[in-house]
Amino acid sequence: MAHLLLEACGGNAASIPQGYLDNFAHEFADGDVSLVSALSKVEGVGDLSTEEVDETLEMLQKVNPDHWPSAESIESIHPEKLWDSSSDPSITLDNFVEDNLGTAEKVERVLTSVIESVFGDSVNNIRDAKGKYPSSSNDFLQVDDGTFAGTFQYDSHRFNFEIAPTEQGWICTYRLDESSLDAIPQIVKDVKRDDKKNTSVKKTRSQGWK
């Protein structure tokens, strides 16, 4: 909704009526609050990229009220200072990302779309290898080299997937998880076993991946 308001006002956040922004006011169960209602006081929103707007909104949507004045008392917010957590040791990314269902849902939605574009059908339950939702505790399913890795569900079958960056672009691969592979009818397993006798064994990395 904040994005829609920004688009409607041509990026001029100061022109958004405060009555609209007041709808973003929220107090979380842990005592934190949302400061998206102070969006009109963010300097230079129209000059920010989409990613920078996303980052600004994400950092404002859940803050510790002990580290911020009330939304009504804020005169202006400078995005560059907001992003630079070193300027205030009390402001860290963990304050805004940890247990953030909005971020988890966004990651799951994007990964689902990418997988479906390759898989050719609807999939669900994007999880890590241990069956946990994308979150800051598992780096939202991203590993050190930038690859997103985890599992998804299709019908009653579980698949392992990787969405990896390469020089040619992103590549999405998937294969049946061992638990689902064990459920394949025996006749199919026998055919696979006979084929293996006549073919060389592929590396684990490529075997079974599409």
Give the gist of this structure.
The protein has 210 residues and is an alpha+beta fold.
Description:
- This protein is α+β, with helices and mostly antiparallel strands and 210 residues long.
- It has two domains: 2-97, no CATH class; 114-198, no CATH class.
- The protein is 32% helix and 14% strand.
- The protein has eight helices and four strands, in the order H-H-H-H-H-H-E-E-E-E-H-H.
- It has a four-stranded antiparallel β-sheet.
Task: State the low-pLDDT regions, or none.
Answer: 85-101, 199-208
Average residue pLDDT: 77
What order do the SSEs take from the amino end to the carboxyl end, as H and E? HHHHHHEEEEHH
Rg for CA atoms? 23 Å
The number of distinct structural domains comes to 2
Share of residues in helices? 25-40%
Task: Give the tags.
8 helices, alpha+beta, 2 domains, elongated, 4-stranded antiparallel β-sheet, 210 residues, disordered C terminus
Structural topology:
Layout lengths: L1 H7 L9 H4 L28 H11 L18 H5 L10 H4 L3 H19 L4 E4 L20 E7 L2 E10 L2 E8 L1 H4 L4 H13 L12
Antiparallel strand pairs: 1-2, 2-3, 3-4
